[in-house]
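Cont'd.
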Amino acid sequence: MSKLATLFIVIFYTVSLFAQQVPPGAPEGFVPLDPSVAREQLPAAPLVMGAYGIAWILLIGYLWSIWRRLAKVQQEIAVVSRRLEGGSKR
Amino acid sequence: MTKLFAPLAILVAAMFVYAPVLIVNAPYESTMGLVQKIFYFHVPSAMTMFMSAFVCGIASAVYLFGRRPGADRLAVAAAELTVLFGFIVLITGPLWARKAWGVWWQWDARLTSTLILWLIFQSYLLLRRYGGPGSDRLAAGVAIFGMANVPFVYWSVNVWRTVHPTTNVVPTLQPGMRGPFWFCVFAFVGLYVLMLAARAQLEARRAELEELYLAVEE
């Protein structure tokens, strides 16, 4: 989890450096709108699906990570308990 | 884990399966349209993040002043969940912002303070992992500081002029949006309780393993 935490910090700082939009330099004087030029039409669906998809991946991924770590620790407890029992019988 | 874990897990799973139906059928917001539907996961994640920060801070205070190991285990679990839900907020927010504001990110009061809150709890986890002896009490202090930040993050949108909507949005939601929103909030809270219990259980098992290793060495 801590390696993941370090990775998240690095990725977030890197992305944030590029995320801030720098507006282009203002033109001299008034420039009338050209109706023939298509304006930016950003589709919302990919953003919505991306948001829900990432949320689901993070939640399910975390649940899986807890399950994996718990299984590993349970296994180690069983091994060490057997070692302890073997030692006390002698 | 307790007998309530399995029934709660089934209930929460059913809620998350049904939530998309409610979200799809919720009315569209008049200015933002489809992209506003990110609201139904973004805001509950933020509320869960704040709640988890409080759980971590209170448990850390109990550990720091009461020296109760169970409180420390709960604090570690809550800190990890604060980072997880905070990450969901910081990903879903910019995806919404790109369409609503035209930019992925703005260094306004709410966004910046949320990022700082998230980094505080990241630092808690890094302290616990790499801080060595005594880092548990130092991290407890960090968690209390993080908890104290939560009211500032929440009220930042009301105090400063920000591009982020104010806290007035939820109390004044349209009737058609209220049901799906609060359904998602309760689903997230239920999921948080389950995750917290499971993660605290992992910490308890690790403590048990450490005691076994000590017993073997003796």
